[in-house]
Amino acid sequence: MKTLIGLEIHVELKTERKMFCDCKNTFGDDPNVNTCPICLGMPGALPRINRRAIEFATMAGLAFHSDISRIIKMDRKNYFYPDLVKGYQISQDDLPICSNGFITIDTEDGKKDIGLIRIHMEEDTGKALHMQDNTTLMDYNRAGVPLVEIVTKPEISSGKEARAFIEKLREILTELGISDCKMAEGSLRCDCNINVIDGDFKTEITEIKNIGSTKSIEMALDYEIARHEEMVARKEKGQKETRRFDEQKNETVLMRIKTTKDDYRFQFEGDIPIFKLEENFISNIKNNLPELPDERRDRIQKAYNLSYYDTGVIGANKELSDYFEDLVREIGDATIATNWVINELLRRLNQEEASVRDLKFSVGDFAYMLKLLKDSKINNNTAKKVFKEMFEEGTSPEEIVKRDGLIQISDEGTIEVIVMEVLNENPQSIEDFKQGKDRALGFLVGQVMKKSKGKANPTMVNKLLLKELNK
């Protein structure tokens, strides 16, 4: 049996203005304040296409290895729905701005390219608010917001792959600055199409709509895969239908049966003339694309000789990668920077549900503390105490070390005096060591550290104790 999954993803573009008018493109404003005759579909109001939206759509296409159309043509997609004021949506039919392309995801069997059919531009619709008294209120702030619709080939074979695809797509688009891709706010919405093939037998395609998170996409598709496989076992084709995912029950629920194919009666949008994209328009965008996530991860893995796991953690987002690279430049040691970023910095950030931008100390402060550790001026335990106060209070490491007198004692003569004092005070531990009791050495090290108030260099303490004990 083979599972075929294709995705249709609507992504709101993060432009300042709407697609065809000068109304603000913002989320969370009072209902219907960002509207005008154009986005409200008033007779005689003429749309003007947003250049920035075209730039963003082109950036997405280039990032996804797509072919960019040199001709921009808009069409009217006709259907009646309360949140579509004009009775038609300005979209693209036969000539999308981007065609072909692919996005590479990581799977259990290695990397896999998921092909794209097209990326086209269109405007968003308004939003219906269903009230408890069975009335429906309409908010048209979202009407006319620029969208790209990204349509994949049916090359995804599991819920896990679909989730990986959406997460990879979201990572790339957010780093490009094209969209914030917040599913909770509706700026990224995904419909899933799925059916199962067994030899010559195949089930009818099911569409799953209105899924609220990547986790729910994975769960909804896994549920549908199992349902379709049961249909195959019974030799039931099923019917073309639209379903929604019930997150409480973790199952899909029938919304409607598709008895006929949607007829949108596409026609050319005569109010927006066909025009050409100049080659330098596309080449300028291509030349100014930022480093993409996969490129960044490959580069930092090679540049700093990181493991696959460490690369995945540090390369998870541009903000963290940039911080890591700044830290390495400051201290000149990728190993110690990797260890502290992953095991200490990220651990605390995850606990606080914070990000690098929320840190109370500078990368220079972090580097100063790690240099002290690298140069054996403080030990690892002291470094962790210093870091804790830096993270929680924002106090500079230089101030903490001076205030608390934390600089490590590395003078051999000073440590030797303390070692001899401890040995003279603990003759029984010397005998225990000679009888092969390993704990004796640990006890003596602890006594030296106690006498030195934790400042003695532990490596030197061990070395000098063993030297005296073995005499």
- Structural class call reads alpha+beta
How helical, in percent, are the residues?
40-55%
Task: State Rg.
Answer: 31 Å
Number of helices: 15
Give the biggest beta sheet: 11 strands, mixed
Cα-to-Cα separation, first versus last residue: 74 Å
What is the multimeric organization of the chains shown?
A: single chain
- The portion of residues forming beta strands comes to 15-25%
- Low-pLDDT runs of 5+ residues are none
Mean pLDDT figure: 92
DSSP, total strands: 18
Shape, principal axes of CA atoms = elongated
Describe the structure.
With 471 residues, the protein is of the alpha+beta class. It has 15 helices and 18 strands. The longest helix has 20 residues.
Note the main attributes of this structure.
471 residues, three-stranded antiparallel beta sheet, 20% strand
Helices and strands in order, then pairings?
Layout: E1 2-12, H1 51-63, E2 67-68, E3 71-72, E4 75-78, E5 88-91, E6 98-99, E7 102-107, E8 110-123, E9 127-130, E10 136-139, E11 146-152, H2 159-176, E12 188-198, E13 201-202, E14 206-209, H3 214-233, E15 241-246, E16 251-257, E17 267-268, E18 275-276, H4 279-287, H5 293-304, H6 308-314, H7 318-331, H8 334-352, H9 363-374, H10 380-393, H11 397-404, H12 412-425, H13 427-434, H14 439-451, H15 458-469
Parallel strand pairs: 14-15
Antiparallel strand pairs: 1-11, 1-12, 2-6, 3-18, 4-5, 4-17, 6-8, 7-8, 8-11, 9-10, 12-13, 12-14, 15-16
Helix pairs in contact: 1-4, 2-3, 5-6, 7-8, 7-9, 9-10, 12-14, 12-15, 13-14, 14-15
